[in-house]
Amino acid sequence: MNAARVLSATTVLFAASTFYFAWALGVERDRGVDLQRAPVAAGTPNRGSTSASNAKGSGTSEAASAKSPGLLDRLGALAGGEKKPPSRQQQNELFQADFKRMYLDPVTRQRLIEELMPRYRDEYVVLERRLDMPSDQWRRFLETLATQAIERRGSSAVCAGDLQCAMPSLGPEAYARYDQEIRNLLGDADMKEYLTFNYALSERQSVEALQARLPPSQQLGEKSAEDLIAALSEVRRTSEQNITAENGSFYTVSGDGYSVAFPPNLKSLDERLNYAARHFRKLHDRALAFLNPVQMGAYKRQMAETLLQLKRSMAATPELR
User: Are the C-beta atoms of residues 251 and 39 closer than 8 Å to each other?
Assistant: First the structure.
């Protein structure tokens, strides 16, 4: 990714940064959209989608959370405990201020990192089996991912739209450093596996949601599920490549179980919604080769609900109107 594209992506990221915080920390769980709307080069991993907002805690952090809510969980409760729910702006201001305070305190910053680690562990459990690395090395990998995520979120909170302030954490040099830190831990071969896996996280969430809808006798085996994930992610990759060939860049709208690439020249909400509907149709057609009628019926219902969720989120977001 060249510097110009990263600067463009960073600028637009600030325009939607408050929405990103609300999603990433749990307030927008029912809306399921991170609203990261950034032009990127084809084939570049969607950085925003690595946040594991819905994953379950486990291990030591799970035991700790059984005693009292974690910091991230308490943040989500702050905005939802009032009799009259606060506005989006009030929610975002609350999260920005609270997260900034915790990020600037080394003790609470470390706690935030530790709370994210089990969520990443759940999200990357299949990758863990694939890479089969020693447990201490895997823990360092999870800690690195969590540390990078907290650094990016913290930078957005502290800098509050100041591009120069955020460049050390959100600029091209920062992303090169993030990649190098992970590569140093994994090595070149496992890094390639990680990038491939990471790219398809939204499709993985979609297939996991499909599995949850199916009775045990109809659930996909691991190989079949992985084949479907790969096929669906290839639909998105092809779309990104085609858009880039025609327009030079694209932007994405991502949420739980979906990530859709859009051409930058779509101006109206209706144009974007029609484009999203065509993309979901391509996913439907690709899935036909992998699912039996019962599975396909469940997938169609899921896709209809997901598309409706995407439409509602885009319609409610000023930046996407």
Answer: yes
Spell out a b/e string for 11-28, using b for 16 or more CB atoms within 10 Å of the CB, else e. ebbbebbbbbbbbbbbbb
214 token code pair: 């199916």
Together in a domain, 170 and 283: no
The better pLDDT of the pair 76, 138 is held by 138
Residue given tokens 């650094």 in the structure block? 151
> Above 50 in pLDDT, residue 305?
yes
Same domain, 211 and 193: no
Token pair for 222: 């691991």
Same domain as 284, residue 152:
no
- Domain C-terminal end among 199, 227, 254: 199
Model pLDDT, residue 223: 93
Residues 143 and 251 in one domain: no
Residue 265: domain span: 202-320
CA distance 29 to 77: 12
Which of 154, 183, 199 terminates a domain? The answer is: 199
Question: Of 204, 259, 276, 286, which Cα lies nearest the Cα of 45?
Answer: 259
* Residue 244 predicted with pLDDT over 80: yes
Phi, psi of 102 (to 5 degrees): -70, -35
Instruction: Quote the DSSP letter at residue 317.
Output: -
Q: Are 171 and 235 in the same domain?
A: no
- 138 phi/psi in degrees, rounded to 5: -65, -40
